[in-house]
Every structure is written in structure tokens, then in C-alpha cells.
Amino acid sequence: MQQFLEAVGIALQAIWANKLRSFLTVIGNVVAVTSIIAVVSLVQGLNAAVEEEIQSQFAADSFSVQRRPLTLTDEEDLRAAGNPRISFEDAAAIREFGTTVGMVMAESQASAEVKYRNETLENVQIRGVTREYNDLPSTRIERGRTITASEFDNGRAVAIIGYDAADRLFGQIDPLGKTIIVGGMHVRVVGVAPKRGSLLGISQDEWVLMPLGAFQRLFGARPSLQLTVRPTRPELLETAMDEARVALRVERRLRPSEPDNFGILTADTFLSLYNQATAGIFAILIGVVSLSLVVGGIVIMNIMLMVVSERTREIGLRKSLGARRRDIMWQILTESITLSTFGGICGTLLGFVFAWAISQVSPLPAIIEPWSVALGISITALVGLGFGLYPAMRAAALDPIEALRRE
Fold first, then answer.
1. Cα-atom radius of gyration of the chain, to the nearest Å?
2. What is the pLDDT of residues 295-310, one digit of tens each?
3. Which residues contact 260 (CB under 8 A, 6 or more apart)?
4. 269 backbone φψ class: left, alpha, beta (φ>0; ψ -120 to 50)
5. What phi and psi values does residue 248 have, to the nearest 5 degrees?
6. Which tens digit of pLDDT belongs to each residue from 221-254?
7. Containing H/E element for 120?
8. Where are the beta strands (DSSP E) in 226-369?
């Protein structure tokens, strides 16, 4: 360990003695590691934001029954377009058949104009839900109250609105008890949801939620429903999904040879699709950025060859005083690794700063993971080791007598 620290000290002295050359040597590594760390931080931030949004839409212990499953080909998409609508009869069949089903919530969505006095919001998401909405763990109210069971059953024109919708419509005015106009219908605000933030610059807090009965008076009963199903216990999720599939196939009189004409989706379904779609893109992006490390390594190798040439007499003197081949190799390799790692440390710090700056001026979020610090530094250490090996071997192979003759 002491020998290693001494070698690092000599390497740092060499770096300090040739500041400009050292800077020009490691600038390739600095640029490469800065790019890698920035890309990794932004990718991690985007993945976390997408995962959080998907899990907010689909609780870990629930699944969704929709008219269309996820489709990957045009043929599948064309076939799914002819699927029948999800109806209350489907929800009743799942409740009746599913022995492990604890809750079935029906929901429908549309978009409409929302007004309050002189303020108008365009294309606001309007959700109509049944009374089971209050049983979801994701249901939270910041101000006011939830919609009561009787208001759900009677289809009262009351609503819970998102944080941004309340802010933009009412400003400093208390929205509770106020009447907004949703697509021409007068709706009384009874609650405001907590802020969820935005995803890629798109607000997740501009929405209005109302009883499904009021929603259907406004938009009609034709839009297909979406069912959210929760089992009696989280560990029974797979069993509940199988029971729901069987219940719907029986309700729709599908023969065993016929495919499902509905979709059963979970948060894992969307996360898996997202990961499949983006994993290759992210890998290629990071791979392309990493190519600059090769350029940086070649620069380091050239500089270390020049260092060996400049210090030929010194190396010959050390060997004549008893230094072994491995001692010379270790010294040159340590200088190469130290030089490369120094660039990696600088690049890691700049990468974090760059990623943070991008997240501040764009909708892309950034997350700094501890493992990315180890990644940036260890990669440059390996580059220094790999590209410093040949100069080290050249130095170790020098004949001490011939080396001492050189000026």
C-alpha cells in the first residue's frame, strides 16, 4: 500500500509539473465522462418519473380492465378496434365470479373546457368514477373532502379538481364550494387534490373528477368504461386477474379458441413495455458517448510513450540501482491510471452540474445515483490501466546501460 501511495504521489507531482500538458491529456476523458454521467443522470431521472407516473395510475395491488389491450402490431391494433365496450355488466360479472376480488371501480374519461368566471381552461381531463374511488390508496385530498357515497350513487354534480386546475381557475380565491362550468354543466367543487407535478413538461394536476352518473349526463353513456380491480389481499393479484379473465370470457360468451376481446393491464405491463422500447435506445446513446473514452485513452497512451521517452535516463538509473521490471511497470501504470482517474473525477463533477443545469431549463428530470459516481471514476481508471499498459511494458523493457547513455 505504501508503494502504491508513493507512486501516486510521484504521479501527482508529474501532473502538477506539467499542468498544461496534463490538462490537454485528460480533456478527452473529462468530456467523455461528463457526457456519460449527464446522460445516465437524465436517463435515471426520466425512468423514475415515468415509473412514478405509471404507478400512480395503477396501484401495485390492482389491475385495469380496458377495451383494448396493449398492441404491438398493426394487425393486433386493427383487431382490438372491434372489441366491444367495457360495460357495467362486465363489472358485475367480475364482482360475482371473482371470489378473490375485493373492489371493482368503473371509470370513464373525456376532455372538455372548464370555466370559472373569466378564467377558462381548454382540454382539461374529466374523469367520471364510481364510489369505489374512495377505497383506492392513491385517493388523497389536500383541501376539502372526498365525494360521499350518496353523491356517487345519485350522480350529483360535484367534483374534486387537480392542484393546477384550482390554481389557474381560482388563484387566491378558495375554490371549495364554488361552482365551475364543465362542458356546459354547473359543477360544485368539494375538494382539491395535492400537487403531483409534471412529466416532461406536461402538468399532471389539470383534471376534474366527478361521479360517473354526472359524467354520463354530460358526455353520454356511449364511451367505454375502464375497470380498476383490487383483490382482497395483494398476494392474490394473479388469481384475481385469472378470475376476471374467466368472468369476462363467460359474460361475453367467447369460445375457448377465440382470443380475449378485452385487455387486462397492470403497472408492470406498462413498465415492461417502456423498458423494452427505451432500453436499446439508451444503451446505444451511452455507447456512442463512450466512444470518446477510446479517443481519450489513445491520447493518454501517446503522452505516456512520450513520458517514457523523456525519462529514459531516469528509468535507466533506477534500474541500475536495483529497480525491477515490475517496479518500472508499476510506476508508469500508476501515473497513467492517476492521470486518467483525475480526468474521470473532473468529468463526474461536471457531468452532475451539466445534468442539473439541463433539468432546470428543460422538462427532463435528473437523478444523481451513487453508483454513477463509481461508474465514472472506475471507467477512467480502467482506461488508464488499459492504455497505459503498452508504455509501461516499453519502459520496463529498456536496457539500463543503453538508457544511461542517452541524453
1. 32
2. 777 777 777 777 666 6
3. 69, 245, 248, 249, 254
4. alpha
5. -70, -40
6. 777 888 988 888 888 888 988 888 899 888 888 8
7. strand 119-129
8. 226-231, 263-265
